[in-house]
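Case study.
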Amino acid sequence: MSTPWELRFANRTQRMKSSFIRELLKVTNQPDVISFGGGFPAAELFPIEQMKEACNKVLTENGQKALQYTTTEGYDPLRQWIADDMNTKGLGITKDNILITNGSQQALDFVGRIFINNGDRILTESPTYLGALQAWNAYGPVFVTADTDENGLVTDTLEDIIKQNIKFMYVLPNFHNPLGVTMTLERRKRLIELASQYGVPLIEDDPYGKLLFEGEHITPIAVLDANYHNSQGGQFGGNVIFTSTFSKILAPGLRIGWVIGPAEVIKRMVQAKQGADLQCSTFDQYVAYEMASSEWLPEHIETIIRVYKERRDAMIQAFEDYMPEGTTWTTPRGGLFLWLRLPESCNSLDLFPKAVEEKVAYVPGTPFYPNDGPTNTMRLNFSAADPEKITEGVRRLSVMIKKAITEK
Amino acid sequence: MSTPWELRFANRTQRMKSSFIRELLKVTNQPDVISFGGGFPAAELFPIEQMKEACNKVLTENGQKALQYTTTEGYDPLRQWIADDMNTKGLGITKDNILITNGSQQALDFVGRIFINNGDRILTESPTYLGALQAWNAYGPVFVTADTDENGLVTDTLEDIIKQNIKFMYVLPNFHNPLGVTMTLERRKRLIELASQYGVPLIEDDPYGKLLFEGEHITPIAVLDANYHNSQGGQFGGNVIFTSTFSKILAPGLRIGWVIGPAEVIKRMVQAKQGADLQCSTFDQYVAYEMASSEWLPEHIETIIRVYKERRDAMIQAFEDYMPEGTTWTTPRGGLFLWLRLPESCNSLDLFPKAVEEKVAYVPGTPFYPNDGPTNTMRLNFSAADPEKITEGVRRLSVMIKKAITEK
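After joint prediction, the assembly is written out as follows.
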């Protein structure tokens, strides 16, 4: 049935695409599929009992407020908790630098909404987070890309690119989605220098920062910016918009993320949010605050880290045991994902239907490239399946890949 | 402190305005202010105990699923509940016609996102819902307005307006925000005829439909459209996008609304939602479903209706007791708001700071007019304060208004 609505879509809808990953969810959520596809945290680690207690406490002590409308900016104690947490790292912000968003995805959408004019040039890594591309495509930007290697965004060749009339840069420094790599301190510092020199601001997307498996936490780019502009530090630098989320340390189903930026930017984002959806769930914000400020959270994060590290190790061991020669992978120091590069003759998009037949799922690498990219890559999630399933899933993949190589 | 970000706002931000009402919340939320300003449901009626039970049940039976990511479309049982509820009225939809949104505000934003090109002509009532104007302004439409009187949108003179290259119409038929009026069945039928004749589709915004104080429910426009296109009814008509919410019958803090439309439109809105925020809170959707499908909900709605009717009556009685001659008002058959028209010499925007001094708040009428409108009107909410406070608040307003008249 055709309706008058279908003749009336706005021009921007031609630039909107369905998310490969979100569509994938529908195929791969059958219980017998071993899925490395989603960005799912391990559900068996969700703090369900603590959530029960938090819900009860919130409803008993603040039921009327927690179910009522609240300000668009978000629940103040939650904003203050986030400010305090970032300030322990030396950021120098107040709650007025913070807007609570529906996951960090909404923060990315608001970046597009308040900054991107049709034709604006945005510098991204290549590959980069698919959700950012999807949020921004509707606003019609041109993506200018820079390389990212094992040590994060490559800064050696960045100066030539940053000169090319760039509106802003977008970087995922910790346990990059999809690559799993981490940007070194040296490169972060160089990035801040270049950003200041050419007056190009940047978005730091850090959803997994707390999930570090080994080594030291590296200073956030936003903090380096604060230090660069204030020799004593302790004052927000203002060149970096920072976004993160409770999705990976509490639960993604709550949809509570946040964005940190100059107060003037937050004001504009508040206007955007008023039009977009008024505010985030008051109840989920109260509950998230209850859990975030609880004493058990650090221990809970330790548990997540221990389990995800085991799973990463299981996946890498399985690669070593099963994958054919010519297959390479990244070894993430944290987070949820790694990146697999197959022999060049293998096309991961062509292999996908076969994988689904074999009851194993991944995300082909191609959609993560803003413009063009190789076709022999894939993103694998290691947080959602236990080591045994991971081993079996990698084995199934390896059989399929070996067959594809032989058939060429 | 000025940052590079502030030089980089997109052109559309010049069309974005702060919501008068959302900003107002910050001023009027002090406990000693009697506020007729917000659209707050009565917090003392929130089903807090039932919410506790629902949270416990959801977390005990479905904890892992309720805290995990889910599909963008929304939680299927909740979509099915909404479809069933609408189908009892004769709409003829399936869950594929439904997207769960963060309140109905997000549905309005998605309408803007997928339909409005810069310069498109949108037909609205005048005055109309401020949140729709705010959601759509960023997309650059031209608002073409039609009159609304005590019997809703005036259809007698609509034909001349509908011919003027209108992209879509936007109507609030039940207990109109801000007017409080209800559109008659006759006018609804005429509207559907005109919409079909000129091929102009329409948005039916119905957040308060279930809160009817007296008389009979009038058939939704979407259902009249289904009947118009199918002589037997029972099949979705496709010309009407319908939106509603649980905010006024459960709790606005949950941010669970929905939009109903042709499957092709819902598909596009799902794309928009993928980019905007991936999905609504899984947990809030599970909890909302638990409460919506419970046996106590009809009784709970009866309680809300009884209390709001008392409050409406108290407000109207106070008008009769206190307001000076030349003041008129609407008498809503349901919902949360009514509309007050002061003597022409009174400017409700000028009076506002004085009202705040007297610890009483309202929303001046001017912002509800898409283009121009009279300055002597105000929207008053009667759901949030008890009858005693309502009487006292109206008394304070009346003193102020009488003084303003005398001073002229």
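Observations recorded in class. The first strand of chain A starts at residue 34 and ends at 35. Residues 100 and 258 of chain A are 4 Å apart (CA to CA). We will return to this complex in the next lecture.
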